[in-house]
## 1
Amino acid sequence: MEHITYLVGPGEWICTLADLQSWFRCKFQHQAVSILNQLEKQNCITYSMLEKNKVVKFKITDWQKDNTFLEYNCPCKKDTGFFFFPIARVHEFISMGKCSEMDILLDMWIHAIYNDPSVQGSYSAPVVYYRNHTGNPLTSFQTLGDRWSHSKATVSRILKKFEENNLITLISFKGKHGSMIYLNYYLSVMFDISDVMIDKEEIAMQLQLPIHVPENKEDFCVSESVTEEQITVSEKDSCVSESHMRFIIQKVAELLKTQGIPCCECPKTQYILSPLSACNSELNQYTLTIICPYGNKAYQFELTVHPQDVPAIPIPSGVTDRALEGGE
């Protein structure tokens, strides 16, 4: 910094007092120092002033004890060390009073989970999960309001504002299922990798939650990537209407396309849906076969459809990827 080299270890950061003022959004530098004093008083950090009080060197208390997932043999490359407070400390800060919008946004970022097999829905994209030991990131506006000391209406307004600014993707399900919050740009900001597309229907399938299937064909909001001529639907022993089955095929084909299955991009690919089980009050099983017109590899999937008072719900219960030979 300014042609001077400083030595920092794991859990330590160094910055100018002006940087600190900007991070804390303070009008004056003495206000930033006051915040440092408060954090030190709470035993969150220790700090020292260098270069005639123009440079600050601080260390997060018990950094190595709290961060046990990785072997921290070198300093973190992220500039703002305050982002890396232990989760227990974050809960303390959040409970101290009414949260600002920035507090809420940082709280969600700190609690982002991605591709964790113990957290449902995290495979699709970074999801906000407040570690309630259920592995289910579904939450309610009332729960979030209690956490952030705001009313349900205020929470709804703030999350809607974040969504309009493309900071989050908010997925709400009907009834008492609750909502899920996905963070946009999390992967690119934190790990310099490409962000992923978030699909509500795919997430609903993973969590086995109801999704809306339009009653009328003209209401279908799906792309034209799969045409009517490509689809064959068998209504034998089926209590699900053909129009709903066609909608399900189109939606599944779109999801498979995002997973890189090339056949779903071909306009000549054939889709055949056949029942595996007789109609009953619990569930219906179907085989979805994707056939390549050029004799290349094809795919076969099993779908489970749960009849309810609301329109049908497609849920992939098992997926197999195998070649089909000789019309088998």
Note: The radius of gyration is 26 Å.
## 2
Amino acid sequence: MISLKAKKRSNTKGGENALSVADILKKVKELEIRSKKLTTSLFGGEYHTAFKGRGMVFKEVREYAAGDDVRFIDWNVSARIGTPYSKLFEEERELTMMLLVDISASSLFGTVKRRKKELIIEVCSTLAFSAAKNNDKVGVIFFSDQIEFFIPPKKGKEHVLYVVRELLTIQPKGKGTNLSEAVRFFNSAVKQKSIAFILSDFMVEQYDDALRVAGNRHDVTGIKVYDKMDMDLPEIGMAQVQDAETGKTLWIDTNDKMVQYSYHQQFMQNEEACRRSFLKSGADLLYLRTDEDYVKVLQQFFAKRKKIKK
């Protein structure tokens, strides 16, 4: 049986670890322009209306009217004025968005258009600028087989630009993936109800318990990022492949029909396990392939959430 991660060789581009300050600033600016354009012209207010606030907050008092809930009569104001007054509440619209970002070695894999890491950066940037446009807080948990870096949620454009710079430049100490540890850290570090996006290829097991806790406390959405070669092998004959997370190598015959079948089945089994885990936790799950348009997927997701809210 072929390892699910056997083909994920680390194809880091030369010189990426030594990006100059000018290169980083240029990439940040490009992502800012693209993300703002998408937020303004495509998503509009869909991001904000797709998610509920954290609860009801006091707005004002007004004179009591027939049909008002007597539980919300403000007795202090009523006694002072001599006429019954009711408290009015509105949904609290300030949200907190948390991005849980898988930066393990497998994120460096990609065969068409871009690598998983590059797609994750684009999606995170778009979500972060959407949150900033609506004056919401944004925080990030970078993880591999350990918690690599935690950015507590804050508001503002400068904070989002800082998040984008970290997305572009962070270098993980670990190579593996421990999704369960990342979600447990999120559960303990972020107490208030949040919108949480988990971006990973999810080619790991045993994260159900932590995800179930997160699903009960927060509004969780998984974004499964994958490459078409994660699903099917190209027919290129004998090939040596390397596991980017363990460094192990092996030779496989990519033309062998049984090898191709086993490889595809492992992907489908992982996908089904992932789908069940999110379903049981009450969380949403999106699929993004490295060679496909993520904008359409996000648009459809926001539109679906808006309909559910109504």
Note: Confidence is low (pLDDT under 50) at residues 1-17.
## 3
Amino acid sequence: MIDTLIQKIIETENPTVVGLDPRFNFIPKHIRDIMLETYGNTPEAVAKSYLAFNKAIIDEVYDIIPAVKPQVAMYEQLGAVGMASYIETIAYAKEKGLVVVGDIKRSDIASTAASYSDGHIGRVNVEGSIHEIYKEDFITLSPYLGYDSIEPYMDNCEKYDKGLFILVKTSNPNSGEVQDILVTKEGIALYEYMGSLVKKWGDAFMGTRGYSRIGAVVGATHKEQGIKLRSIMPKTFFLVPGYGAQGATAEDLNGCFNAVGLGAIVNSSRGIIAAYQKPIYQKDFSEMDFAKASRQAVLDMKHVLNRVR
């Protein structure tokens, strides 16, 4: 799957992944009104709004991006109806030929991790009847329980051509409270040590284009750490959050890419899906044209990223 992702980045000339992280206040009024009238003031109205919103955006951007990244928490908070929206969003994105990164950030060990793995990137066996449930191509994981929290996913990655993005240096402002702690007498920080572990874990899962299917989440908001991690993990593909709304600029991404502009995919969520609410796009796009505003935001991001990569 890492080879597929790289090929789609090359075809679209765009290392952008659109984060499908809807909130109810992102949804245009005409969609909210229809869903509230139909389903009342219920979680189902919100979930149906999310699905309609996501589909409209996917319809406008699927031909100019390689991937989308739905954040499961936005859907999970709504219960079963929200998870149905999550599953349908993934199915629709895949119908349009997009790679799907399920942002689930799971972390557990043994049979619990195996169950997460089977549900999200593997198969569930019910008395010999085999079912694929969520159908993500990649998922995000937290590795801070150690290798036995990651190992249960490896089999399904190999068997079903899936991939992982493992948290190494996250984009939130306080990540350094834990991730920058020095853990060796030589002055190696925890995020550096974790980067070396992710590299080691991924060495056995190399694709034909020179990158491992075991990737790393590396926040754009920490430029110097990103440069250091690229030197530690030259053949690890980066999923890079923090661009745009969290404060990182394109110039902060230089160290994430290789000499030919590959090696990373950059996430933007609200900067794209809620673009119609930004003054810069309101002069050209009405609320009814929210999806077209998202397309323009993708094109603008593509232009900026290609300038620096």
Note: Residues 121 and 135 are 6 Å apart (CA to CA).
